[in-house]
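User: I'll paste a sequence; please echo it back and then give the predicted structure.

Assistant: Echoing your sequence first, then the prediction.
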Amino acid sequence: TGADHIGSKIFLRVLTVQPDIKAIFGLEKIQQGRLKYDPHFRQHALVYTKTFDFIVQNLEFATKLEEHFVSLGRRHVQYQGRGFDPSYWDTFAECMTQASAHILLLNHLSLIIRDNKKDQRR
């Protein structure tokens, strides 16, 4: 789906921008060009997509989101022993911001093209 594609793109961007993150996900031996085909990568990207979708679907429910993030934090604290550096969240945030800007630009261009087609039919 489109959402899965976006999640995969964001996750791939994270691993491209900061390749040392690959080790945390058990992907350090996978060549960069093969990542998106790897089943472990795809599974992690799917989890990432579902989490992102949950956030978008619950933007109006701050308490629900807070509970989700506290739970997520509890699960992820164990990864500090694997070399997870909390600064990696900055990488995730930056890659999500870049992807969001890219999506907004594509949506804007689609609207312009659609409007131009309407104008040409008149």
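Residues 88-121 form the longest helix (34 residues). The domain at 2-121 is CATH 1.10.490.10 (Globin-like).
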